[in-house]
Sequence to fold (146 residues):
Amino acid sequence: MEDYAILIILFLMAVCLLILTVIGYWGVFCKAGEKGWKVLIPFYNEYLLFKIAWKPSVCLIKWLCLCLYEVVSVTLKAGVLLEMLQLILPSIAFVLTVMLYHRLSKAFRHGFGYTAGILFLPFIFVLLLGVGRSRYTRPDKYIEKI
Fold:
């Protein structure tokens, strides 16, 4: 019975962190001029986040890398090239995600430390972006400085 209590507590903590993250992204979307409810739509919310902080085409590149990774993962033939692709494709997607977070923090006039915060503790740092005093600046106004 004690094992179930721990699982229930962990589940409730995860739900609370998810709610905090959604509230934060809702605020980020509103500050960027998008409707807040769009954060609730899977895939579209990530597309809009790329649109807010960078370019939507980069989101499509990330999704393409992840889809190709899935195709390569289920391929029956093993080989060095396929194994390298299994390593490279998710790495590209991860790097694009880190770059997205950096551009998002730059769009709200923060630096690399804030990027690390969004990467490791998104439920805190995205919430601070969404409900804090940070102001959104369109990417084309700061992109030359990056």
About this structure: The mean pLDDT is 91. The longest helix spans residues 2-31. The CA atoms of residues 61 and 93 lie 8 Å apart.
